[in-house]
Amino acid sequence: MTALTSMPRSSLDHVTDWVFDLDNTLYPRECNLFAQIDTLITQYVMDVTALDFASARELQKTYYRDFGTTLNGLMHRHSIDADHFLNTVHAIDYTPVDPHPDLVEAIRALPGRKFILTNGDTGHARSVLRRLGGDELFEHVHDIRAMTFVPKPHRAAYDGFFALHGIDPTRAIMFDDLEKNLVVPHEVGMATVQVVAGDDFAHEQVEAWELGRSTGPHVHHVTADLAGFLRNLP
């Protein structure tokens, strides 16, 4: 993992609500857990559309980019059953996620409430948290079902979350691996952190836009070491 980098911003002393994405954020992209899900999504698209592998993969990534999730695209264009999709693509091996006591302790030490805001589902999140060793760290997992299947980066995904938990965005911070998922948080006044892979990470299943690091105004900090960032907050 590479060291912390950050854009010049004010202190985070005002933060009372800490909001974390799950996949490729609370565990490192390098463990390739999401690659398993990605493979199952490709197969699902093939089954639904009868496309060959290459065409299904292209469609999958198009839906992921344009709809926020492949699931959202499939629901809009093919009327699939969301629960069936989620149960199918999360039937994976979670052992690549190693226990991370340093991260668990860094999150536990944060002052205020901690949440997960994920385009995955709660069962998947709990499986990841058990592997990390932090199943009891978070006040709530706000998942794709709680979003009524309207995912990040759509504004409704965030608004419903804020309303349900009484969160003042100007006193909250969002951590996510995808810079596009930080646009709305920035617009509503949250501090934002993009959690990225190491400089040398590459994977045939991951497109360049998924690894892009933004220097735009909606990304206040960038780090490849989440535990280190949390231990040494600005």
Question: How would you describe this protein?
Answer:
This protein is α/β, with parallel strands linked by helices. It is 40% helix and 12% strand. The protein has a seven-stranded mixed sheet with strand order 1-7-6-5-2-3-4, with no helix packed on it. Helix 8 (183-187) links the parallel strand 5 (172-176) and strand 6 (191-195). Mean pLDDT is 91; it is low at 1-9.
Strand content: 5-15%
Number of strands: 7
Low-confidence stretches: 1-9
Order of helices and strands: EEHHHHHEHEHEHEHEH
Alpha-carbon distance between the two ends: 20 Å
Please compute the radius of gyration using only Cα atoms: 17 Å
Provide a count of the helices: 10
Which labels suit this protein?
disordered N terminus; alpha/beta; 234 residues; 7 strands; seven-stranded mixed beta sheet; 10 helices
